[in-house]
Amino acid sequence: MRTAHLYAFMLLLAVATGGCDAPDCEVLLARSPDSSTGNWGAFPTMLGMHAPFELREDGTLPEGDLNQYKLVVLSTNLNVFEPERRRLWEFVNQGGILVTWFPDDVRARSTFWPYRLELSDHDPPRVDFRDLDHPLLRGLRGKTFSGRLSGGDVIKSWDREHWQVLADTVQGPALLVASYGAGSILDMQFHGPLTGRRELAGPLAENLLDWAGVTKVGPRVLSDRSIRNVLATICRKQMRVLQPGEWTRGTQEETLASEPVRGLHWSYPRGVTLYGMLRVSQVTGNKQFSDYVLQHNDLVARQHAWLRWQEASFGRHGPTHGIAQLMRLGCLDDCGSMGSQVLEGLMQHGGEATPEMQAMLQRIATYIHTKQSRFPDGSLCRGRTLWIDDLYMSVPFLARWGTYAEAPEYWDDGATQIINFASRLQDEDGLWFHGWFDREQKPSGFKWGRGNGWAILSEVELLAQLPQAQPQREELMGILRRHIEGIRRHQAPSGMWRQVVNEPDLWEETSCTGMFAYAIARACNEGWIPGENMTAAEKAFEALKTRVMWDGSVLDTCAGTGIGRSLEHYIQRPRPVNDGHGPGPVLLAGAEILVAQGDRE
């Protein structure tokens, strides 16, 4: 196994130098490595809806003539780009457009700009776009957006002869533009909490592309990408720089002074994403992604062991650095999804079963199997309610642990969950309701898309582990087949499925579409359903391609959602750009379709 430090360096190199996945990139986005990716907000994704771009995150610019680009965007800490200042101004002078996005007031030297521009550290409560006839204000002219810049800066003073104010705050301008030679300079002071809002970042990005004369592309260009290309783009976006901690075991003061581990992320949506990355590696042979997941999981196990040692030694532990839910372990969301992909890494990708890893997995198995609250019939519950989500938060782990630990009782428990949940939640049409209210002895009234996705993923993952002689196997197979038949009837003409599966007027949702496509493709590949069903999965993935932007961001994914009592509850759920529930299902679907195609690409 590679050393952790070498791996961190190699990963940093891979992430930092990601190029453009389409020909003729006319947009360059460059970020200094010591700034937060959150500063961008939704901006790169909104750009990617209309044009491919090259992304660099190592604080460097490409060699050669910058005039191959029409638009260059630099994010924060402009002193990093100071050595390239002459090249940048030559680019602008010859007709290019340079955007300085949220440049830091401390580290960005005032000499970077050709005209005077001084920043002040303020958090204004709102931004007002001016009522001016400027191409950058199309769709934004005269509008106000509330929400603090959250650590952002505004302009303290500026050379009024050269800079034109396009957006203002009570503390100073937030958007200024100036001409320079044949080109222009645009300074934006919008931080993540504002630019994460599609209604602001969307028009701003589209206007900027039009203003720069960038060749825009339509959905057809996105859908023309190969499956391999789409999957690799998503995987690269999901890879963080991993850095081991020191994990000192000394006095409490010495322990807490240790250099912390970095790059860990433990959550149930992340579990699906990491599982998807493992499947992509398995199908495509690209070990870069599985190496990343295995290294991440190894660091998690070591961090978990260290924090547990702190609890035993000092009565409490210090900062968790990304694994707070694992340390808390108070519900199924805290463990099942992530634990399942950890097992997948051990069972299928050569992950090392260290003592720390074994202890972590045993703790998860014990929690799910013996500590989580249950109905009298053994159904895993939240108080007096069944949540369909909890199937995926438990069953895939139980299924894999049964195989890994050679413990059939865990297979039995997984089968019990599917059968008991189906008896309450699966309707006559094959679809599942979102939840069950035990006090009222009835299901919730709506067949939420991702809820059905959680259920069907759990059905497939369990059947993939169960031996042929398992007594409940045929009953479970019947549940899956009815579910697939119900889903097939509601696929939209585009290939997508909707936020509530059987509501034809609702918006089309990405995560459930990926889940359904994966489950159908997996069932075809396993021989559980006729092969002609594969066309539905393939049609779904063609539609999913148009929801994956050039930078790997995924659009139109419903945010985390509780059980709703009204249809309006589901209609109004937000769809954040690159919500964490989206990447994993798309990766799983694409990988399984490649299996069906014999990886022809």
Could you explain how this protein is built, in words?
There is one protein chain. The chain has a nine-stranded mixed β-sheet, sandwiched between helices. It is globular and about 80 Å long. The longest helix is centred in the middle third of the chain and has 28 residues. Helix content is 43%, strand content 11%. Helix 17 packs parallel to helix 19. The chain has 601 residues and is of the alpha/beta class. The protein has 22 helices and 16 strands.
- Number of distinct beta strands: 16
Given as residue ranges, the uncertain stretches (5+ residues, pLDDT < 50) are 1-18
Q: Which strand-content bin applies to the residues?
A: 5-15%
Q: For the CA atoms, what is the radius of gyration?
A: 25 Å
Shape: globular
Helix content: 40-55%
What average pLDDT do the residues reach? 90
Q: What structural category do the secondary elements indicate?
A: alpha/beta
Distance between the amino and carboxyl termini: 30 Å
What can be said about the biggest beta sheet?
A: 9 strands, mixed
Number of H- or I-type helical stretches: 22
Kindly report the spatial arrangement of strands forming the biggest sheet: 2-1-3-4-11-10-9-6-7
